[in-house]
């Protein structure tokens, strides 16, 4: 490997509140290692945009002040893509990509994303091996879904979980202001893994508090059982708050949201989910004489800057830094992962490296043993796991009364 | 009037992030005036709950620590109602209410709410005059809609506007991460007045930025014109963010949300609105070949504690205090109102009193001159008006990673 090479970084998949903290970590660590990394490029719209020559020199693009703002700006500063590389290395796209890498004298490739993005890191590193390229490919984990395997948590989850737990605790207050029975259904993101929806349990002050019913995609959903659970809950509580994951499905595997409308399919073959809360709202209206409303937490749960978890934010930043250092140390086909330590009761997250082949295209689900009461409740083990991840608040600069962000 | 009487306070209408700051103001000012006010009672579920003997002694119910938490707890601590007093004084409910007031030796009645609640204050004060009762009736303003007349602003609006402006600025970032054209529709609360939706203009960094189209209930909505506006906007911008008020209606007066489903009607005859964003999403899907999604800010815009405006919060607290003092000074049939002063470029709000008869059942709309570009844009006059109201952040205590609230 030549002594001085360039690095390139991209962001891929859905935005989060801290994906730019990881980008910040990559940039500052790259800039610190001037002796090995000459330039740090940023792909615009990930690998898809890079294929169309969309990239910038990050060392020249941001002032020091903008770099500071990047740390707490949600969404993806470099923009994103949902682009899947072909399965076969014979496809011309691989040759094209490596020609572009070589033109730019790329020695280090850093990709911030979820399991689909790790698929990109895996394929590129295998192709590099095949053609004898010395480029290092490192994945930096990101997803609010917390569904990456071989890591204690994934940056983005802690902040989204803090948003969910805080917002549900406010919705619970709002739901109880009027006399008479009512049902509030809150729909939370999560296609196959229920981690984020389970975080709603952190809103509870005491056992038996709202949200009294929590439904995850890990357990088959049954309409009749649901109505039975609800009737039972209404015997104990006037105002029932229910949290449901967007991805709940029935025993046949049909998504509950599909009971209302056609679901679009994205490029990775995932169904774009929306509306299981509305489906449940309609069924309750049809079958029970009770006031009911549904609320979708929607994109705010992944892009809100006002409830960024400090431990999540620090983890995201550190994952970016450690990714750069791993590449510099000659590692490739690796993803930065987290392990958990406790020092005097405080959680600390340490970074390690795992084989990206063991991570990509896999999903970590909530253990069955953590799901209780016929799939309507979450265990204390989950609380012990998740509570440390929502601790602390990142300090957000304000301007003109609203959070101040950096714009590309 | 006997030298020592009791006071009673209630909350009515929709919750806000600062209605409990007004309640805090009432409680501390009442407790300060021990020589005149012996007890401060709180009606549970407003006048409706009080009729069923639902009330508590607030002097005994809250510890000092809980009282402090009350200041930043959103939603209505005393719970709320949407109860309209009969039009005719012959109705037995008035006699019943005043018998209950007398049983409790009530001398002062404070009601925190919007224009429907001011109708309650007006009717009770007129009835008191008719029967020769010396009870003082004072209204304390509250509504996120900012639609009360004779006051510069209404507590609740500033915080909701800060939430809207901040959240839209995050949605704008989120909306621009993928390549290709897209439309994001954000639906914001506001039945007849567009103040809160207009606050989305505060998200813009520069002229021409998103949200590029803003639709208010003050202007008739036309589907064909809307599609023309949108096509024009897409010529300038890849990712268009549109903000619409839940209450937009067509030239015939039909709510746009009614194009999808039956709208329920509440006790005051207001239609419960939901879904004009979905209606517009569907129409764009049918008529244009473009990626589109709709987001409802839903109840979080009125009950989020994470973006409470400091000036709004202080105003709410002061309105509660001044309401108590007005009653003690012998005033009745009055509402606390705000006037605006500028001291060294900083906005300060001062409290005054207005006749509640001139406020109740009226709605303040956005002036026509402030609505530009065929009803799709908001003028600088609005920005000058609204920007000072979202300044500063209230300090929220946290516990276990989420905001700490007081529960009744």
Report on this structure.
Two copies of one chain form a homodimer. By secondary structure, chain A is α/β, with parallel strands linked by helices. Helices cover 34% and strands 20% of the residues of chain A. Chain A has 13 helices and 15 strands. In chain A, the strands form four sheets. Chain A has a seven-stranded mixed sheet, sandwiched between helices. A four-stranded parallel sheet of chain A has the order 7-8-6-9, sandwiched between helices. Mean pLDDT of chain A is 94; it is low at 261-267. The interface between A and B is large, with 54 and 54 residues.
Give the structure's gist in a few sentences.
2 copies of one chain form a homodimer. The first copy, chain A, is 34% helix and 20% strand.
Largest sheet of chain A: 7 strands, mixed
List the domain count of chain A as a whole number: 2
Element string of chain A (H = helix, E = strand): EHEHEHHHEHEHEHEHEHEHHEEEEHEE
Number of E-type strands of chain A: 15
Could you tell me the mean pLDDT of chain A? 94
- Give the CA-CA distance, first to last residue of chain A: 33 Å
- Can you tell me the CATH topology of the largest domain in chain A? Rossmann fold
Radius of gyration of chain A: 22 Å
Q: Can you tell me the CATH class of the largest domain in chain A?
A: Alpha Beta
Poorly predicted runs of chain A are 261-267
Oligomer: homodimer
Give the structural class of chain A.
alpha/beta
Q: Beta-strand level of the residues of chain A, as a percent range?
A: 15-25%
Largest sheet strand order of chain A: 3-2-1-4-5-10-11
> How helix-rich are the residues of chain A, as a percent range?
25-40%
Largest interface: A-B, 54 and 54 residues
Q: How does CATH name the architecture of the largest domain in chain A?
A: 3-Layer(aba) Sandwich
| Count, helices of chain A | 13
